[in-house]
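User: LuxR family transcriptional regulator. Structure?
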Amino acid sequence: MDGVSAPIRVVLVDDDHLVRAGLRLLLSGDDGIEVVGEAGDGLEAEGVVASAAPDVVLMDIRMPRCDGLAATERELRKQPELAVLVLTTFQDDDLVLGALQRGARGFLLKDTPPQQLVEAVRTVAAGRSILSPSVLDRVIAFAAGSGAGSGGSSGTASVSAAASDGGAERALLAALTERETEVALAVAAGASNAQIAADLFVSLATVKTHVGHVYEKFGVDNRVQLALVVHAARRGA
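Assistant: Predicted structure:
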C-alpha cells in the first residue's frame, strides 16, 4: 500500500434524497473518493460530520431546519481545515457571497458536468478554491456594483469585507506595488488575465505572477476574495 493515497472522504448534505443518491453514484465511481456519510439538512449534518470525519462536505444551501450557510459557518468554526463545497441550483449573489464569507472553498451549480464536479472535490480537498465560471463573473460584477451602490443590500451585508469600514482593506491595498495595484484593480473590475496583459502591455506570465503576489499579500486564494477586498477598500476611502 506504500505510495497509495487514502481516498478523499466526502459527506453529502442535501434535503433531496435523489440528489444525494446521484452524487453518491457519481463520486463513488472514482477510486480516489469515498462517500462516508449523508445528511438531509444542516442539523443532521452536525452529527454526521462529527462521526464520519470527512475531508470534504458537499453542501446544499436551501434546506429545512438549518440551511447550508448556517451549517457551513458552524462546521468551519469547529473544523477550520474542513473543505466545504457548496453545490446548489441557485446562483443568487447574496447566497454565493454568504457562502464564501462563511469560509466555503467553492460554489458550484448542480448542472456542473460530472467530471468537473469530481475535479472540484479534488481541488478543494487539496486546499484550493473553485467557482463555476458563471458564478465567478456574477460575484465580481456584484462586488463591483456594491462598491458604488447602497451598503444596505443583503448581499453586501453578508460579506465581512463589504460590511467593514474599509480600514484594514485600505491598508492591504496600500501595501501593494504600483503594478500590483493596477492588476488588483483590473481583477476587481472583472478583467481576465489576458485582458490585463493586453491593457498593461505585459506578458500573461507577468500578470499571473502579480496576481499571485496580490493573493499572498491579501491573504486570499481566489479572484472573488481579491475583488471583495479591493471594493471594500475603495468604498471606505
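The first helix runs from residue 17 to 28. The first strand starts at residue 8 and ends at 13.
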